[in-house]
Amino acid sequence: GNRALRLCFTYPEIFKTQLRAALRAAVAGDLWIMFPMVGSMDDIRRAKAALRAAGEELKAEGKPFGTVRTGIMIEIPSIALIADMVVREVDFASIGTNDLCQYATAVDRMNPAVSTYYQKYHPAMFRLIRTVVETHLRVRGAGRRRAGRGRAGGPGDEKTEHGAGLRGPDQEDDHRHDHFPRPGDRLQGMRHGDRG
To answer: Long-range contacts made by residues 158-161, C-beta under 8 angstroms, separation at least 24?
Structure first.
């Protein structure tokens, strides 16, 4: 649908206002901007170009602004499959598993008539996530995350995500030092054999 980043491109003036506000706020600290619903490299480059334009506008006006890190939400299969290209264009990424699953399996997860086809443990999901994680680790080291616990969460998800090398938003993080955070509480009692 026409939402998230696509909607920003539809209404560029609103998008510019948001980007200007983010840049102004960045003077107060370390700010990261994540663009959602990215489907192509062109989407990333357009968003970054809009961010640069907003910064140039602020500079011309003599208004203070800070620098930001830019990243994307990986929730469309087309962007997951070109992770090797994406990782060189952004500072960080988050995997949106709920949307990634519904787009990979062609299922509207809000439609009960097809809910049985929404399979979060579908082999295709593991391959997509593995592609993203392995590519990121090879090129950049630590710093990838999973988003979208919500309805998709379950008692086995920590094991699955740990095995895939993912970190959740509720876990400690420090991308500046590229180290792994402590596992979640439910991981601490797992045996080594359970983590494979």
So the answer is: 158/183, 158/184, 158/186, 158/187, 159/187, 159/190, 159/194, 159/195, 160/121
* 24-28, 166-170, 177-181, range with the lowest pLDDT: 177-181
- Between CA 176 and CA 111 the distance in angstroms is 41
Side-chain-side CA neighbours of residue 86 (13 Å): 32
* Whether pLDDT at 113 is above 90: yes
- Looking at the DSSP assignment, which residues form a beta bridge with residue 32? 69
Q: What is the mean pLDDT of the chain?
A: 81
Q: Give the pLDDT score at 141.
A: 65
What strand order describes the sheet that includes 68-74?
Answer: 31-35, 68-74, 92-96, 144-147
| Residue 10: CA count within 13 A, CB half-sphere | 7
Tokens of 145: 């995350």
What is the DSSP secondary-structure string of 7-28? Answer: HHHHSHHHHHHHHHHHHHHGGG
* Alpha carbon distances (Å) from 141 to 78, 82, 178: 22, 17, 7
